[in-house]
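worker-03 picked up job from queue 'complexes'. Input manifest follows; two sequence lines, order preserved.
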Amino acid sequence: AQSVTQPDIHITVSEGASLELRCNYSYGATPYLFWYVQSPGQGLQLLLKYFSGDTLVQGIKGFEAEFKRSQSSFNLRKPSVHWSDAAEYFCAVERGGSQGNLIFGKGTKLSVKP
Amino acid sequence: DVKVTQSSRYLVKRTGEKVFLECVQDMDHENMFWYRQDPGLGLRLIYFSYDVKMKEKGDIPEGYSVSREKKERFSLILESASTNQTSMYLCASSFQFRGRDQPQHFGDGTRLSIL
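worker-03 finished. Artifact:
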């Protein structure tokens, strides 16, 4: 069965430091992968997506993610974190054979220290 | 910009009540979804719909039903609310472009408390 694992429940980084949030997926074919961000009390906003092609994808707010098939990973990165990046981040994979149906990881909460 | 509107941000109901959560999208999307979000469990799919009057069960449909009478509106129904249905409920919509499903757009959520 398909699954998405985000190994880190909570991460704290200092403002200005680099960030990497981990995501591993389980799927036999080429996956369609997504990262969403959720600010407190809000819905989810799409940061970026990978459908095919270039394995390094750029998203909004200065985020990027790299698809590594050999490691079944799709890690999210940002070179310099801002206090406004504090939020919860969700990785998702499209369920195979299903119309836009997503499986989400359990999320990683990011805290930013001044 | 796509707008997915959930009718209530906060809702308090009593055990045994029939509860309706409404979701409306303004971009003529074919696909609509209902999730619940609980701490440590992420988002779990309750029901989804690919078209008017069509519905499919997600991973946790028990205790819920849905209605999609118009393309823009997707309602989630708690037939007889129970305390274990206290949660954040998120609605989403998406569309197809050149045969490929596009990413989902989410509403701001309804925080439902069942007393």
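worker-03 released lock.
The longest strand of chain A covers residues 87-94.
The mean pLDDT of chain A is 92.
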